[in-house]
Amino acid sequence: MKNKNGVLLASGGLDSTTMAYWLIDNDIDFVPLFINYGQHCANTEFQTLKNVIPKSHLNRIEYIDIRSVYAKSKSKFIKPVDLWNEEIVADDLYIPYRNVLLLTIGATFAQTMGLSNVYSAFINSNHAKEIDCSNEFFDKMEDMLIDYGSVKINMPFRHFSKYEVAKLGIDLGASIGSTFSCQASPIIPCGACPNCVDRLDAFRKIEQE
Fold first, then answer.
1. How far apart, in whole angstroms, are the C-alpha atoms of residue 105 and residue 101?
2. CA 164 to CA 152: how far, in whole Å?
3. Is 86 exposed, middle or buried (0-12, 13-18, 19+ CB in 10 A)?
4. Residues 6+ apart with CB under 8 A from 48
5. Which of 28, 90, 112, 195 has the fewest CB atoms lying closer than 10 Å?
6. For residue 117, what are the β-bridge partners?
């Protein structure tokens, strides 16, 4: 049987936290990899990750710092706005080629560690507008990395909704209520960015069941 162990791109968010529990439930060992690409919420995400990752993997978290890549970016996901006084729209949060960067670093790190898989918890979000969040992009990225290396990109939740991932997280015992994934605020979830809207919709639907 082919070895399924690998690297998990982990951020302390609902999706990647659920995937950590899903990997354990499927007897797949993994190294949690946190990438600081300069997102304004990096410190909050990393502290959250340490609180929500399964205890068995807490001391195995790896941290990569590439903040300089987006140091000159004007994205509000890099430089937070004053939410009390400034307007913000979804396009303000765009970060060019972020997913290309994260998957490439994950694959590079995995191969360096002698691992053959990268696990990413990207989902089918109705609010994701970036070109590198599309299923077409992910298909091509998976093909390219396996054709030109030995690492396979795995996205088991790619066709899931946020609601379906949240339900799975609850079933697996993940602390999804303690996760963090806001794009607009570095400390407290804003409740209005695409990530927060998806998350609140999922929680509201679960509460109504």
1. 6
2. 24
3. exposed
4. 12, 178, 179, 180
5. 112
6. 152
Q: What are phi and psi of 38, to 5 degrees?
A: 95, 5
Residue with tokens 């602390």: 175
Tokens standing for residue 49: 């990750």
Terminal-residue alpha carbon distance, the chain: 40
pLDDT in tens, the chain (209 residues): 468 999 999 999 999 999 999 999 999 999 999 999 999 999 999 999 999 999 999 999 999 999 999 999 988 889 887 777 777 777 787 888 888 899 999 999 999 999 999 999 988 665 555 666 677 777 787 777 777 778 898 999 988 999 999 999 999 999 999 999 888 889 888 888 888 888 999 999 999 98
- Please report the beta strands in the chain, taking only residues with DSSP state E, as ranges in sequence order: 6-9, 30-36, 62-65, 117-119, 152-154
User: Hunting for tokens 């990225």 — which residue is that?
Assistant: 141
Q: Which of 58, 66, 64, 65 is nearest to 30 (CA)?
A: 58
